[in-house]
From TrEMBL:
Polar residues bias (residue ranges): 621-638
Name by which UniProt lists this protein: Anaphase-promoting complex subunit 4
Sequence ranges of Acidic residues compositional bias: 824-842
Domain Anaphase-promoting complex subunit 4-like WD40: 26-99
Residue span of region Disordered: 621-648, 823-842
Length: 842
């Protein structure tokens, strides 16, 4: 037995105990992920197969343990399942958290997560006829088709990417901590959405893939398109996400009367069909899978709805940020002072001076009004205008620029950002309303029609309030300019200079109006204070009748068809509208947009789970298992290692599968210290199954003689590709080896034990061992093809991770202490000695 058949890439001595997960190897790159325990929390690090560490990050502040990882189909993202339950996506470039995937809420608490998978979807062959109009699968006349023709909304400042001291002064590559995740409100976090696409939502973003010469955008990578990210928990539920981000609900495998977990999961690469293997009560596992068909994912309707949800999320998040920026500019925030506070603070300081220095009743507005009418200031006001705060030329310029900038921002943001974004949202929700009117779509998606109508009503209010705010800000700005001009005029009059001021340049009426409703308390405050608005358009004087062109033409025809042309035309009153009624109308945009965001998210919340809600299951549940199996499985369960590989049967039509199952179990006889590896090959389809079995004893033949064998201890195994399996074994002398054997070349025997309604994996092994003891089955020895000795792994458990993709055929072994990591090239030159030994500190 040659022990140097593989090339050793590296031997790394880790500084602290680590874990190597089964899915640690990147499918299309020479990279692997190692989990390290530090300070009661797991850290994730990315390593090259040659032994150098690329980065290391703290995956989450709330995560105590990493349950599992999965690689995205494009190999650029790592999905991580945590305990306590959470799901995050990390960039392969530097490990920073790109997104936190919201877990669907339910009445019951989410139990511990157990495993995670990310399945790709094979794409159909593209048509040889090019899409000359570049429709990109967008239906003409749909909301997205109209949004493509509209001008892009202005880009907002992204405050989530703030520079830190490390970003400014550290050398490139020295950053080890993860970037701070964007601070999103809960309503945006829990919104079901695909990967963000601001351009599809008609929002401008910098495009780094667009060249300056020809403005041609690079081809978009659609490898993750229609992929499914599945996460299993301890209650047997599968949380599914389309494209790895869009929540499509949860599935329950197994019988609700028993405690169920998911042993493994497989997805048909060409259709949305999942094959799950439930584990009942933690002791027996179905031999045949439970078929789950997500038929709603086969058409384009579900993805079109997901795109609408994503676009609505982008626009709603845009509206929330626009309103928040306007509120911060006018009212202020935790770190900035609002423009409205400057005038309030100035008049409050003057009234305090009246009371403290001159012992008179505070009457700031009255004194200013008297000065405006008579040009004769009171003693306190004359003193304050000459030496008060903000009365120097620099102070007045700062005051003027701050208020002007805030009012201009309110005006421009309302007209150019808020109102257009709400109009685009109205367009998206209008299409959702059209979906709700179709019986088939309404039944499948269960769109809340009343909620859609409520959101459309709120959008109309937001559009009216945004337009109203722009007009109010423009009027306030004009009055403020008149006020500042008058204040400068009076300051010159009261100054010691003998210079005669210029003629009056201010409007006394506008200045007086600003003193009454702008200086101390502005009408603009109502747009950011108060309860949620509940007005209707009729309260603003908008007629309640139909204003469409069709209705106007109909009314005109009715008038022209009358026999008496002198008859008085129809007169529509304004329902007693007057300007004074506007003062009592609530107009808090912040409260309105917050309520709208929650209401709008509810529209897409339940329909997003339509694919799993309408899923069809096979009848394979644990209740069909033989009672003897379930009663005895606890004491007879002896399998220590179970691995499986499922593929679509190439010799049959779609819907038929081939599963290879490898189970390592000791002998049922206590008198014999023998262990066996059971290789099971199943072919199953819609209504039939065929089981084949071969048993191999954990022994290796050393010579040509029949009895010249040596027993080995099998400690780890993983499927490598469609033909080979990689194993790690240990001899009686304690020497560890990594080897390969071909499971396809084994001589399988038909195996169908009688007496069971339906087999579990445990009962299959039990029956096979019984037939082996009675001589009905025969066993062989492990046919190792290639092997190589390990430097560690002489005792205890061993972790093994492999990658069998062509060009990336590698294997990684971590010893029981979690400190010695060995990597091998399974396609290396035979006899090549590995000579790379690295230390983590290097």
């Amino acid at each position: 037995m040659n022990s140097n058949d593989f090339a050793s890439l590296a031997t790394v001595q880790l500084s602290s105990p680590s874990r190597l997960l089964v899915s640690a190897c990147c499918p299309d790159k020479d990279l692997l992920v190692i989990i390290t325990r530090l300070g009661g929390h797991d850290r994730m690090s990315l390593w090259k197969m040659q032994g150098s560490k690329t980065w290391e990050v703290d995956v989450s502040t709330n995560s105590e343990r990493i349950v599992g990882i999965a690689w995205s189909p494009d190999g650029r993202t790592i999905a991580v399942a945590h305990d306590p339950p959470s799901i995050t996506l990390h960039s392969i470039q530097d490990g920073h958290s790109e997104r936190v995937i919201p877990i669907p809420t339910s009445d019951a608490l989410i139990p511990q997560l157990t495993d995670i998978w990310w399945f790709h979807q094979e794409k159909p062959e593209k048509s040889p006829i090019p899409d000359v109009f570049r429709r990109n699968n967008i239906i003409t006349g749909s909301a997205h088709s109209v949004l493509r023709t509209l001008p892009l909304l202005d880009q907002l400042r992204d405050e989530t990417k703030q520079l830190t001291a490390t970003d400014l002064f550290a050398f490139q590559g020295s950053q080890t901590a993860a970037r701070r995740a964007p601070s999103l409100p809960d309503v945006i976090k829990s919104w079901p959405a695909l990967h963000p696409d601001p351009v599809a939502a008609s929002i401008n973003v910098p495009n780094i893939t667009r060249t300056a010469e020809n403005s041609i955008v690079d081809e978009v990578d659609d490898t993750n398109l229609d992929s499914i990210l599945a996460v299993a928990d301890r209650s047997g539920h599968l949380l599914c996400f389309l494209d790895g981000t869009y929540s499509i609900g949860s599935l329950k495998l197994g019988n609700s009367n028993t405690t169920t977990t998911v042993a493994s999961l497989f997805k048909n690469p060409k259709s949305p069909v999942l094959l799950g293997y439930p584990v009942y009560n933690g002791v027996f596992t179905d031999l045949l899978p439970t078929h789950v068909s997500l038929s709603l994912l086969q058409g384009r309707k579900f993805r079109d709805f997901a795109k609408l949800s994503t676009t609505a999320r982008e626009l709603c998040w845009y509206v929330l940020r626009v309103v928040e920026e306007m509120r911060a500019a006018w009212v202020g925030s935790d770190t900035t002072t609002g423009a409205r506070e400057l005038g309030t603070k100035w008049i409050a300081t003057y009234e305090a001076k009246q009371q403290e220095d001159y012992h008179v009743k505070p009457s700031g507005i009255l004194d200013l009004t008297t000065l405006l009418v008579t040009d004769r200031p009171s003693e306190a006001l004359a003193d304050y205008l000459g030496s008060g705060p903000q009365m120097s030329e620099r102070g007045m310029q700062k005051w003027e620029s701050a208020v002007t900038e805030a009012l201009v921002k309110l005006r421009d943001y309302s007209e150019k950002r808020l109102v257009p974004a709400c109009q685009r949202l109205h367009l998206v929700l209008g299409e959702i309303q059209g979906w709700a009117s179709l019986p088939t779509l309404y039944t499948a998606f269960e769109i809340p029609n009343e909620t859609v109508d409520q959101c459309l009503s709120m959008l109309k209010q937001a559009i009216l309030l945004g337009t109203w705010l722009a007009a109010a800000a423009r009027r306030e700005h004009n009055r403020f300019k008149e006020f500042i001009t008058w204040l400068r005029y009076e300051t010159v009059l009261l100054g010691p200079s003998s210079e005669t001021p210029n003629t009056l340049r201010h409007d006394i009426l506008e200045v007086n109006q600003y003193l009454m409703s702008g200086l101390e308390k502005s009408m603009i405050d109502k747009w950011f204070m108060g309860p949620v608005p509940t007005f209707v358009p009729q309260d603003l004087g908008i007629p309640g009748y139909d204003l469409t062109v069709k209705a106007a033409l109909r009314t005109a025809r009715e008038y022209l068809d009358r026999r008496d042309p002198t008859e008085t035309p129809i007169d529509v009153p304004l329902d007693g509208f007057n300007d004074k009624s506007l003062e009592c109308i609530e107009r808090n945009l912040s409260a309105l947009t917050g309520a709208f965001a929650n209401c709008c998210r509810e529209i897409f919340d339940r329909p997003s789970a339509a694919a799993t809600r309408t899923a069809t299951f096979s009848a394979n549940f644990g209740s069909d298992l033989d009672q003897n199996t379930s009663d005895s499985s606890q004491q007879d369960k002896q399998a220590s290692l179970v691995r499986e590989r499922t593929t679509v049967d190439p010799s049959r039509e779609d819907g038929y599968y081939v599963q290879y199952l490898v189970i390592h179990a000791p002998s049922a006889s206590n008198s014999e210290h023998r262990s066996f590896v059971h290789f099971v090959r199943q072919r199953y389809g819609h209504d039939d199954s065929h089981v084949e079995l071969v048993m191999l004893e954990c022994c290796l033949r050393r010579g040509e003689e029949e009895d010249d064998v040596v027993g080995v201890d099998l400690v780890a195994l993983e499927f490598f590709d469609d033909e080979t399996i990689v194993i790690v074994y240990r001899t009686d002398e304690g020497e560890g080896y990594i080897g390969t054997l071909s499971y396809c070349e084994l001589e399988y025997t038909n195996f169908q034990p009688a007496g069971y309604v339906r087999l579990s994996r445990e009962s299959l092994i039990k029956s096979a061992l019984q037939e082996l003891n009675t001589g009905q089955l025969r066993s062989g020895y492990l046919p190792i093809k290639q092997s190589r000795g390990l430097k560690g792994c002489r005792s205890g458990a061993v972790s093994l991770a492999v990658n069998g993709r062509v060009g990336r055929r590698v294997a990684c072994v971590l010893d029981s202490n979690g400190t010695t990591l060995e990597t091998f090239d399974l396609e290396g030159d035979e006899g090549e000695e590995g000579n790379t030994t690295l230390d983590e500190e290097r």
